[in-house]
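Page 42, continued from yesterday. The earlier attempt failed because a stray header line got pasted into the input along with the sequence. Redoing it now with the clean sequence only.
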Amino acid sequence: MKQKVMIWLAVTLTVMLVFPWLAVTFVKGDAGMAVCFLLFFAVNPIYAIAGGVFAGKDIRRLWSMPAVAAVLFLSGTWIFFDMGEGAFVMYAAVYFVIGAVAMMGSLLYRRIR
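This time it went through. Structure tokens are written below.
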């Protein structure tokens, strides 16, 4: 189980920290804005759902996964985009809620099934 957790943490670091860095470093202009929209409205929410479903498999040990993903998202955006931007706090809160709902849904699905 520890190996799976380490893999999920590595993927979380990649999605929430490395992807924004790649967007800022290698994609310029209007294409950079399109990549950021893709990250904020597609990649990160899908990852929050996947992380929540994974956390729902063993909620006693993995309850913090949605919070870790949200904090890493906030750290990555503040580092690479604009430090202290309030909109990113809202995005992080939404990603946390999405992950927590997916975690609870996964837990309920496993208990019912």
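Notes: DSSP finds five helices and no strands in the chain.
Reminder to self: strip header lines before submitting.
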